[in-house]
């Protein structure tokens, strides 16, 4: 049914507008990750084009979302140490049932993050 994400900035209590996200597929015979797309989150902290992958584009297998957390917080004027505690947050997950929607939200601050399988 599709794949989506949503990022909330828990430090500021807002959507993470402007954060860069990369989607990779990791279901390759040689084990290498292959970049599918990069995007910048809109004012609601979501992909401006809607789904990351729609019905026919989503296949069973493993994927990785990489969120550019440090760059986002630096752009918001947050004074981060060098190196930052969190730079890139990578979430590896599997898609098994193509009749279900896969939503991968991220709640993030410069020092912590959490995720879950949303609906």
Structure description:
This protein is mainly beta and 119 residues long. The chain has a single domain, classed as Sandwich (Immunoglobulin-like). The chain contains one helix and nine strands. The strands form two sheets. Strands 1, 2, 5, 8 and 9 form a five-stranded mixed sheet that branches. Strands 4-3-6-7 form a four-stranded antiparallel sheet. Strand 3 and strand 4 form a beta hairpin. The relative contact order is 0.28. The model has no long low-confidence stretch (mean pLDDT 96).
CATH architectural designation: Sandwich
> Average pLDDT, to the nearest integer?
96
Q: How many beta strands in the DSSP annotation?
A: 9
The tally of domains stands at 1
The level-1 CATH class:
Mainly Beta
Beta-strand residue fraction = 35-45%
What is the CATH topology assignment?
Answer: Immunoglobulin-like
Q: How many helix segments? A: 1
Order of helices and strands: EEEEEEHEEE
Low-confidence stretches: none
Major β-sheet, in short? 5 strands, mixed
Q: Please give the alpha-carbon distance between the first and last residues.
A: 11 Å
Fraction in helix: under 10%
Secondary-structure-derived class: mainly beta
Shape: globular
CATH homolog superfamily: Transthyretin/hydroxyisourate hydrolase domain
Indicate the radius of gyration in whole angstroms: 14 Å
Task: Give the SSE map.
Blueprint: E1 2-9, E2 14-15, E3 20-25, E4 34-40, E5 53-54, E6 61-68, H1 69-75, E7 88-95, E8 101-108, E9 113-115
Parallel strand pairs: 1-8
Antiparallel strand pairs: 1-2, 1-5, 3-4, 3-6, 6-7, 8-9
């Amino acid at each position: 049914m599709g794949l989506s994400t949503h990022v909330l900035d828990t430090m500021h209590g807002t959507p993470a507008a402007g954060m860069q996200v990369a989607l990779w597929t990791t279901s390759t015979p040689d084990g290498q990750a292959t970049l599918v797309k990069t995007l910048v989150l809109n004012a609601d902290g979501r992909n401006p084009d809607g789904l990351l992958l729609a019905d026919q584009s989503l296949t069973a297998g493993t994927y990785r979302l990489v969120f550019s957390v440090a760059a986002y917080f630096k752009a918001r004027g947050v004074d981060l140490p060098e190196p930052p505690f969190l730079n890139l947050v990578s979430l590896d997950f599997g898609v098994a049932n193509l009749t279900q929607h896969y939503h991968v939200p991220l709640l993030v601050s410069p020092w912590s993050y959490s995720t879950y399988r949303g609906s």
